[in-house]
Amino acid sequence: MSEFLIIALSGLVLICLIIFFYYVPFFLWVSARVSGVKISLLQLFLMRIRKVPANVIVRAMIEAHKAGLSDVSRDDLEAHFLAGGNVEKVVHALVSASKANIDLGFKMATAIDLAGRDVFNAVQMSVNPKVIDTPPVTAVAKDGIQLIAKARVTVRANIRQLVGGAGEDTILARVGEGIVSSIGSSESHKSVLENPDSISKLVLRKGLDSGTAFEILSIDIADIDIGKNIGATLQIDQAQADKNIAQAKAEERRAMAIALEQEMIAKAQEARARVIEAEAQVPQAMAEAFRNGNLGIMDYYKMKNIESDTNMRQAIAKPTSKK
Fold first, then answer.
1. What pLDDT does residue 201 have?
2. For residue 22, what is the enclosing H or E element?
3. Fewer Cβ atoms within 10 Å of its own Cβ: the N or the C terminal residue of the chain?
4. Which distant-in-sequence residues (6+ apart) come within 8 Å of 76 by Cβ?
5. Which residues are paired to 153 by β-bridges?
């Protein structure tokens, strides 16, 4: 019986030790104390209760302590983790900023991290600037020649503007707009090809990094290609359009002339019909005149003589055709 009691007590002690070391990370506390970080077993136990990873918080505290960061406390790290932030990246960023003499406080770092930006990458970009290649930008000079330019933009992260500042897409859009404006204001495409640095100087003077999370250090034109002759193409299109308009107007005038001709033919046919109708009434009028005694036989012969004389004169007046 005594042996069973000893085994039971041993099992109970083992279970208690497992529970104790689960809720109280003793060896993590020892590691923190050895590293010079002041933290109690009770605080580690409460982290377990609050479901905060004690190993993450302790490692971050050790890293901050070794780097000489005095403004990083356990409560701040726990609060940042519970807010959904990345504790490890924030501490890495603070250590890197401290070594590079960059003014970055804990509140600013956590605000940048909670804003969805990679604060550690931003600190690295402040030390080592990033080069962004723009897509091909098409613009037309005043002489109508199309130019296709590619630029390389060297930027550095602006720590103070990371919260609420615009990103890389805005930088690329503004640089593209500046290139188009610079080429479009050039009198000739040859001047742009001879001095491509004029584009960079003009674009840099516009302050394109205002309101963005970056600071533009330089803009270099990597390549310029000649595209189409847009001016000539537009002139050809305009000439074709003018030609189509002129043809349409000519067709309209032709249609009006044909309509007028048809109208005149119709009127002439109508007048001819009236003449034929009137000529058809002449014999009837003469017969009526004979019956009424208004026209004698001698008068009739005289009228026919006059008509024959008239026809003869008209025949003589007509020109003879030459064979």
1. 81
2. helix 2-23
3. C
4. 106, 110
5. 132, 219
| DSSP notation for 254-281 | HHHHHHHHHHHHHHHHHHHHHHHHHHHH
Query: What whole-number distance in Å separates Cα of residue 26 and Cα of residue 16?
Result: 14
**What's the first-to-final CA gap in the chain, in angstroms?**
159
Give just the sign of the alpha carbon dihedral 264, 265, 269, 272: positive
Contact 211, 122 (CB under 8 A): no
| Burial class of residue 150 (count of CB atoms within 10 Å of its CB; 0-12, 13-18, 19+) | middle
Which stretch of DSSP H or E encloses residue 32?
A: helix 26-35
Compute the half-sphere exposure of residue 185: CA atoms within 13 Å on the CB side of its CA: 10
Query: Cα(82)–Cα(136) distance, rounded to whole angstroms?
Result: 45
Nearest CA-CA partner of 77 in 69, 68, 66, 88: 88
- Rounded CA-CA distance 232/199 in Å is 25
Tens of pLDDT, residues 28-73: 777 878 888 888 877 877 787 787 888 888 888 888 888 888 778 8
